[in-house]
Amino acid sequence: MPSAVEHPWDLSPTEAVKMQRELRDRIVLQPLEMPVRRIAGADISFNMYSDVFFAAIVVLDYTTLEVIESAYFTETVSFPYVPGLLSFREIPTLLKAWQQLKEKPDVTMVDGHGIAHPRRMGIATHFGLATGSPTLGCAKKILSGHFTPPAQEAGSTSPILDKEEVIGYALRSKARTNPLFISPGHLLDLEGALAIARHCLGKYKLPEPTRLAHQMVNAYRREHGAND
């Protein structure tokens, strides 16, 4: 498995775009090299107008989708909100939570995009590069490309296209709800990302890894950051 890619995080937005273009050549899209036993969900939460970020990574048993482990971290961030550069604002805090895990997951589902990004460097892709681990993105809104709405039945999909290139899938996780946008991040391919997202669906719209990460990071924020 490729090693983690290290680089400075204290960059200007212009420097960050340049870094994304350089890192794009390091992305590896391939089938998973081993069966998935443990899957993580990763998410960030913050209070409106606050630069104090709260990160959560929740690890689940892939078969039962029951929580095995969770890790949290909070810190003040300085990188501004810039569309397309979300990873520079959120990943440093996520990495500190990642470092606290006793056993790393086989794959991580990140709340956000993988390669379905204008420079193919969504937060899931960047997180995969930064950890040297397989990742996929699960987003609620499209950021790059276009798609034909999938059929209304649960489980229906349609490809997300950038010109003629497939960069992800729109997945209708529940009937008659807006689709989710699934894309591989790093060390995972398109079909593998979609298969994992489908496997993790339960009775809710969001797949269990990111649903639980979202739920747990917001509880952590309310408990530790009420005055931020």
From TrEMBL:
Chemical reaction(s) catalysed: Endonucleolytic cleavage at apurinic or apyrimidinic sites to products with a 5'-phosphate
Subcellular location: Cytoplasm
GO CC, one annotated term: cytoplasm
GO molecular function, one term: deoxyribonuclease V activity
Binding site for Mg(2+): 43, 111
UniProt keyword list: Cytoplasm, DNA damage, DNA repair, Endonuclease, Hydrolase, Magnesium, Metal-binding, Nuclease
InterPro entries the record matches: Endonuclease-V
Major subcellular site: cytoplasm
Entry's family note: Belongs to the endonuclease V family.
Functional description taken from the UniProt entry: DNA repair enzyme involved in the repair of deaminated bases. Selectively cleaves double-stranded DNA at the second phosphodiester bond 3' to a deoxyinosine leaving behind the intact lesion on the nicked DNA.
Name of protein: Endonuclease V
Organism name: Neolewinella litorea
